[in-house]
Automatic annotation (TrEMBL):
Gene Ontology annotations of biological process type: acylglycerol catabolic process
Protein name from the UniProt record: Alpha/beta fold hydrolase
Cleaved signal peptide residues: 1-22
Cross-referenced Gene3D superfamilies: alpha/beta hydrolase (3.40.50.1820)
GO molecular function, one term: monoacylglycerol lipase activity
Keyword Hydrolase: yes
PANTHER family: HYDROLASE, PUTATIVE (AFU_ORTHOLOGUE AFUA_2G14860)-RELATED, MONOACYLGLYCEROL LIPASE
Organism: Nibribacter ruber
Recorded GO CC terms: membrane
Keyword Hydrolase among record annotations: yes
Alphabetical keyword list: Hydrolase, Signal
Domain AB hydrolase-1 positions: 68-172
Length: 333
């Protein structure tokens, strides 16, 4: 065998191993076989006459600075994707609290409740109360940005600072996108698989370039689709899509009292239901460079940091560029 043929076969073998490692494994609705980066605890709640458990991680610093940060995940994620953020915040003295919202991650996923941002905010406040946390900086990404805004509006005395990382809900999609039933959202979710999930994330999150570090967050969602109980996940996902679509916060940004940092990846084009809008409207939705500027003007005490050539997940795609302004803002007076 020539050296060239041997090298070619070796490269093929290595690439096949990489493909095999990237494939998702079936995951149950509560992610019991998926390991989070920090110990997971559970906060018991009663929501609409149902007993539920809210999973959370509580990362305590070795040298506390007396401040706490609450990290709120996006719709297609769970608290685990905050791992590096939590480690660096903890190194800088912050206590970091990372919940999985009801309906997400390792938390309970009730099938027959009305999901609302107010309910999720109340659950989160209950968690903070149980931990004795009276004030907190609230950082929300994507859907977590909508929740963080609602939390800040409901609990201004608790919200010391607000950080919105590529939040969705900066525009009211109902104005341009036809409403679709929860059953239709459910039917769409049942069609999800690894290929569709990765394609969506590739096109909408990462600008068409895939990095192996993105595999984790596609594989968790795809792992659910491989489990016999996936319809349970799909139904809750449909319910929370309806929550996001019908409960905008965009009209209330002027009422936010907390000092606010907007971290906006400029390549992001995320907009719920964009494919269902008229072509002439579709092209205008999810314009994050323009939306970031508009929202920064509406929030009384806001600072806008624009991250050029970064998409929907700055803390995954361009971590250092995300962390530096975050720490500067958290440490500012």
């Amino acid at each position: 065998m020539t050296h060239f043929k041997y090298l070619s076969l070796l490269l093929l073998f290595v690439s096949q191993i990489g493909v095999a490692q990237a494939q998702p494994k079936p995951l149950d609705p509560d992610l019991t076989k998926y390991t989070y980066p920090f110990p997971v605890h559970f906060h018991s709640l009663t929501v609409q006459r149902q007993a539920v458990k809210m999973a959370f991680m509580d990362v305590k610093p070795s040298t506390p600075n007396g401040k706490s940060v609450l990290l709120l995940h996006g719709k297609n994620f769970n608290g685990a994707y905050w791992e590096q953020t939590a480690k660096d915040l903890s190194k800088n003295g912050f206590r970091v609290i990372i919940p999985d919202q009801i309906g997400f991650g390792k938390s309970s996923k009730p099938q027959n409740i009305q999901y609302s941002f107010q309910m999720l905010a109340q659950n989160t406040k209950s968690l903070l109360d149980s931990l004795g946390v009276k004030q907190v900086a609230v950082l929300g990404h994507s859907m977590g940005g909508m929740l963080a805004t609602r939390f800040a509006l409901m609990y201004p005395e608790t919200t010391e600072k607000l950080i919105l990382e590529n939040p969705i809900g900066l525009e009211d999609w109902k104005r341009w996108v036809p409403y679709q039933s929860i059953e239709k959202w459910y039917a769409g979710e049942l069609k999800q698989n690894y290929e569709t999930i990765k394609k969506y994330q590739l096109d909408n999150y990462y600008g068409g370039t895939w990095d192996p570090k993105y595999d984790e967050w596609a594989n968790v969602l795809a792992g659910w689709t491989l489990h016999p109980e996936y319809p349970k996940i799909a139904w809750v996902s449909a319910l929370t899509y309806d929550m996001i679509f019908t409960q905008p916060v965009v009209y209330e940004f002027s009422q936010v009292k907390a000092p606010t940092l907007l971290l906006i990846g400029q390549r992001d084009k995320t907009a719920l239901g964009k494919a269902n809008a008229r072509p002439e409207d579709r092209a205008l939705l999810g314009n994050y460079p323009a939306l970031g500027k508009e929202i920064a003007k509406k929030i009384p005490n806001a600072k806008l940091v624009e991250l050029a050539n970064v998409g929907h997940l700055p803390h995954i795609e361009a971590y250092d560029r995300f962390l530096v302004p975050l720490l500067q803002f958290l440490n500012s007076k």
